[in-house]
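tool_call: predict_structure(chain=1)
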Amino acid sequence: MRLSGMKKFPSASTKVELGYSENKEVVIASIAGIAIKRFRTMQDQDVFLGKNITIFSGRNGTMKTSLMGLIAHPFNSEAQDVFGKVLKTPLKEVFKLSPVFDRDRYEYDLILCTDKGTTMKETVAMYYVGDKTNRHRVVVSGAEKGDGNFAYNTSFLNLKRLYPLVDTKAVPDKATSLDLSPEEAADLKDYYETVLPSTDYNQFTPVHEKNVKTTFAPVGEGARYDWLSISSGEDNLGAIFNRLLGFRRSFKGRNGGGNGIFCIDEFESSLHPVAQLRLFDYLQRWSSKYNVQVIVSTHSLHLISHIYLEHGENLKKDRIVVNFVSKSTAVDGNYPILRNPPYELAYKELTLQDPEEAVKARKIRVFCEDDHAVHFAKKLIKSRKILSCVEFHSSLNKQENGPGTSYSALRALCVNYPLLLERSLVLFDGDVPATVTDNIKNKSLYLTLPDDQGLAIERRVIVFILGLENDDNFFVKFKKERERFLGEFKGAGIRSLAVKDVMSETKTPIANCKSWADKDKLKFKEYITYYCGVADGRDGFLILFVNAINKINAMSGMPALTN
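tool_result:
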């Protein structure tokens, strides 16, 4: 039984059925994936590739690197990178088969899409030949004439296993064969500036040691350091760009078909989290432009969160596919490969922490203008699960027994000091006009408490009571007649009890409404609770609130909440 979900590969035929006599004749448009029959402890697993980028993630020991090797190795190529290395991935460069533990026959189907719009599948087999050679044999399709590797560009780069520059004998090489065209040099500069924004990147020199190190380093008048001082992150970026140029040069000479597979293992190695996101987005654009399927492995929850948050449409259209190799539900080492699983599952697999508990532990601060607004917001939200993940404040000071915070102070915080609102959300009262919030650039910093007529909760409750009949259940519940409420309103300085006058700030200043509400704060909170049971806009506000805290959590790599 297949464990990888409902998605299935399209109906596929062998090369013979499609009229090909040799594998190398097939013009490959893209790789759909592999269907594993058996490989080590894995059985009956389907691995789907994205049209542009595929991500492998999961805990250590789940064979992510091996899976990438299975995809990349059954191909030959004549294309080369800048330093002359052929764009080819021998299996032995990715992982080694053990003569002790890998004695079973392994098989999987390679699923290809051809330039003719057909889908082909050919079996790749690995088996131990111990009688004479004491080695493993790998065959593609079989051992007949026309079988063997397909023609396609591939490259496999393990960033974590690259030798640090200091541990090599690599030096700058001024050979003309390594010169970049003006267009390539401009792209190299743009690439570095995109991933690691800096004014130091004007010119570059190739730095290499044969079969050990291939990278680029900044030089020239604008450089503040030379090739000996580049960081490991810059070193890795140079190694990646070398391969990118190899695929790019091959692309110019191709007539139709795909341009290959580029695997990057340990993608986040030596890169700051922000640089990881910039590199990923760069590769997403690059892969589409040069028709190369990029495959990366990562443990970076920050990167995975970014993909779910910013690339939802690409995930939906299979331009990006996340393959999560699950360890928690594996049976006898047969790790389920989950295609585009919920982010909450990925979070739990990588952190070994329950998503809801993680969100509760890192509560989001919610700032309101006063205690009445806090109570109003809580009663609108109601859900204990959601409320347990936030903490409300009516003051910017640590002491919460003050008079509250004016909307102008909250607005100034959003406009002038947004960094102070990290993992925070501001809730403005319903009477704060759009003219006040229009110049807050980051709209995700705030929401407005719901009121279809733009009233603060103190004014809204008074208007609500004025609109009730004498025998309404509200007065029964609180054992106070309507006329008594009217007397209290007058005692708070409200000059006119006409609803239209109470709704007017000119005729009824908000201070008078607050004066009545503050006379008995506990009772007023009870009135708010009652009103929330009939208030318009609650459902819409709840959706906006949950979306807002989910976005904040996602920016911190935290899982989403559902109502």
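agent: The first strand starts at residue 28 and ends at 39. Proceeding to next step.
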